[in-house]
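Ticket closed. Logging final result for GRIA3 protein.
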Amino acid sequence: VQVQGMTGNIQFDTYGRRTNYTIDVYEMKAAGSRKAGYWNEYERYVPALDQLPSNDTSSVENRTIVVTTILVS
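Final structure:
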């Protein structure tokens, strides 16, 4: 299966794992969101160049967010 979705290329390997992708990662806070970096299967998480260390604890750091892909035919 290979289609174009909101996050870009959606493709799965023979084991059903998503492959050949890059997903933007956003930091969400009460004041809004900003791009924090990106994630792909090779580099894993890559922070944005303007990413500065912060003591702000209002983000979703250390929380799990589930992202689901639904293919409707």
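Residues 1-73 form one domain. No further action required.
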